[in-house]
Amino acid sequence: MLLMGCFAAGHTATGDRSGRPLTQNQTPVTPVNSKPAQAPPGLPGTRTPAPTDVGNALTRLLEPIRAQSGTQVSVAVLEPRTGRRTVYGSQTHVTASLVKVDILAALLLRAQHERRSLTPWETSTAASMIQSSDNDSAGALWRRIGGGPGLTDANKTLGLTSTQAGPDVHWGLTRTTAADQLTLLNAVFADTSPLSTSSRQLIRTFMGHIDADQDWGVSAEGSRWQLKNGWLQRSHSKRWVINSMGRVEAHGSTFYVVVLSHGSPSMSHGISTVERAARTAVHALYSTAPPAPPIIH
What are the tens digits of pLDDT across the range 34-64? Predict the structure, then answer.
């Protein structure tokens, strides 16, 4: 049996946490998720602007996580303000519910092509899929976009090159890389994107108002965040796939962070590993930034 995305059967919220329904044209509410950033063990809590190679730094910091936990981890992180980015791990991972952001992007691209807004049903179903990680909603929208071929067509437009749609109705078995999911985050949060402004705003709104029990993963590093998580226990190995991606604000800057993992012995173990990797990735990029040029008066 596959346990994926949402444990609460029948939990299908169709609005924000206040219970209000959301529509595609509604002005998004800026998420206010206050939580102090924490430095991972062994890393300084203040900026040390040594001009070292961030890729080497990230590898050095993440290898012990993999060695100690036995969990395979891939990470991608981008600071959009400076364009600095790095990727650790090129292997593909099963997405589980992480693919729900991709499904919504595909739905919105289809609506844009048809020159229309989402229908009320599409909007409420998308809200349930992202905010509550409802699997029935994901299945319905998977069919709406044309299943795997529809996702593949959308990913060509979005610039994803290493994502393989799940077979038949098994959207959660889509495989992807951390680098591809970073490309997807950039399409959602950057100003230039195949997604229209209203489409990007809708995805951002849903990712900023997820159910409280899903506040984990990349939100471990940052005072404000918009995210989507995915989790899945594999039937053959009983090991867990735990994934998280999103936009976080930390250290006075913004970061797009993706952490994909598989092989954890429990869900809680996988979450702990993913959160440690997310904190490590942000600190690695932040602490290796070159010093700011002096201000000359």
Answer: 444 443 443 333 333 333 477 777 788 788 8
CA distances from 68 to 40, 80, 95, 269, 276 (A): 15, 31, 23, 12, 12
Element (H, E) at 240: strand 240-250
| Residue type, position 280, single letter | T
Q: What pLDDT, in 10s, does the model give residues 130-174?
A: 999 999 999 999 999 999 999 999 999 999 999 999 999 999 999
Q: Tokens standing for 215?
A: 């506040």
pLDDT at 62 (0 to 100): 80
**Torsion, CA 158, CA 201, CA 87, CA 57, rounded to 10:** 160
Nearest-angstrom CA–CA distance, 203 and 218: 17
> How far, CA to CA in Å, does 275 sit from each of 156, 220, 243?
30, 6, 10
CB count in 10 Å sphere of residue 194: 16
Cα(240)–Cα(260) distance, integer angstroms: 11
Instruction: Give the pLDDT confidence score for residue 129 in this predicted structure.
Output: 98
Nearest alpha carbon to residue 5 among 231, 261, 235? 231
pLDDT value, residue 5: 55
Q: Which two tokens stand for residue 84?
A: 């600095």
- Pairwise CA distance, residues 111 & 125, whole Å: 15
In sequence order, the 6+-apart residues with CB closer than 8 A to the CB of 134 are 5, 6, 11, 12, 13, 128
- The pLDDT tens digits for 207-250 are 999 999 998 999 998 778 999 999 999 999 999 999 999 999 98
Contacts of 128 (CB under 8 A, 6+ apart): 12, 13, 14, 134, 137
